[in-house]
Design brief:
Blueprint: H1 20-47, E1 49-52, E2 55-59, H2 63-69, H3 72-103, H4 110-118, H5 125-135, H6 141-152, H7 169-194, H8 198-206, H9 211-222, H10 224-239, H11 243-248, H12 260-269, H13 274-298
Helix pairs in contact: 1-13, 2-13, 3-7, 3-10, 8-9, 10-13, 12-13
Length: about 300
């Protein structure tokens, strides 16, 4: 057997390698192992255990998961989270794309407009939620404007209780989330729009395509990879929604706006049921993984890459 050349031998330390670089990444790598890998492995073990304030008590098997299936609050938070997904994700994609198309035009002060629309992204969510609580109060500016608009149209108006009604509490969370995150979607779409070759628009215009036809047949297919990325990113974010309902409505009234992640937090740190919280976290992971895998398979039907 011929010996391996030095370039094909298994990894071996050489004097020309700078060991200082490994020292620089060692703290981050150790933190990743302890706070990510070890935490994930332990949470899986805790989900199969009876684990309370004092730590491990007994091995519970699938008991925690079976209890979740009989927990009405868990199913309510599941449907609340599903509501956030089917409202926030499409609305955020549509509004972000509309804003990006508008700000991709050669208009005066476009940089200022981009800055204004992006400012909520870097604004503290707690401060934004406090302001929105004031805006959406029963006698707040939003209801006053709606009352004035309905009055001009001669229509009856009953002020909605945005924060204290089970019918409107989830919508208040949706409004806050759209205000907070749509600017990020706009910026990503804006970068994608600026990457579309102008020659394709000129060729479509020469062929007689109007503005809508150019947008539908040129713009949308070429930015579909960006749409796919934003869809997956926002869907995972909607699954993990926590701060907005926590600060805006505290999950109420009657758990009508409680999200799954918020329920995990309450189970772990209010009820001291680490085992139940870990089981819910792994159920949530399974749902996120399944949805992401499904969308990754489905992208072949509507996502168009330039190499194709």
């Amino acid at each position: 057997m011929t010996p391996l050349s030095p370039s094909h031998r298994p990894f071996r330390w050489r004097p020309d390698q700078q060991w200082e670089g490994y020292l620089f990444i060692l703290p981050s790598f150790a933190g990743f192992l302890v706070f990510i890998v070890l935490a994930v492995v332990m949470s899986l073990g805790i989900s199969f255990s009876e684990w309370g304030l004092t730590g491990f008590k007994n091995f519970a098997g699938l008991l925690n998961y079976r209890q979740l299936l009989r927990d009405p609050v868990f199913w309510q938070t599941f449907w609340n989270t599903a509501f956030y997904i089917v409202t926030i994700v499409p609305l955020q994609l549509a509004l972000g794309l509309i804003m990006a198309v508008g700000l991709n035009q050669a208009i005066r002060g476009v940089t200022v407009y981009r800055l204004i629309y992006f400012m909520p992204v870097v604004t503290t969510i707690v401060a934004g939620a406090i302001v929105f609580r004031l805006l959406l109060a029963t006698n707040g500016p939003v209801n006053n404007l709606l009352a004035a608009a309905f009055g001009l149209l001669g229509l009856p108006f009953s002020a909605p209780n945005w924060l204290g009604s089970s019918d409107f509490s989830k919508w208040s969370v949706v409004i806050l989330t759209l205000w907070k995150n749509t600017g990020f979607t706009m910026v990503v779409y804006l970068a994608a729009l600026q990457g579309v070759p102008k020659e394709l628009y000129d060729a479509a215009h020469t062929d007689g395509a109007n503005a809508w036809q150019r947008f539908r047949n040129v713009t949308l297919p070429l930015i579909s990879p960006t749409t796919f990325f934003l869809f997956i990113f926002q869907m995972i974010g909607a699954f993990q929604l926590f701060t907005e309902p926590f600060v805006m409505t505290s999950g109420g009234p009657a758990n009508s706006s409680l999200s799954v992640v918020q329920y995990i937090y309450l189970a772990a740190f209010r009820d001291i049921r680490m085992d139940k919280a870990a089981a819910m976290a792994w159920v949530l992971f399974i749902f996120i993984f399944a949805f992401t895998l499904f969308q990754n398979r489905m992208q072949k039907r509507w996502v168009h890459y330039e190499s194709e």
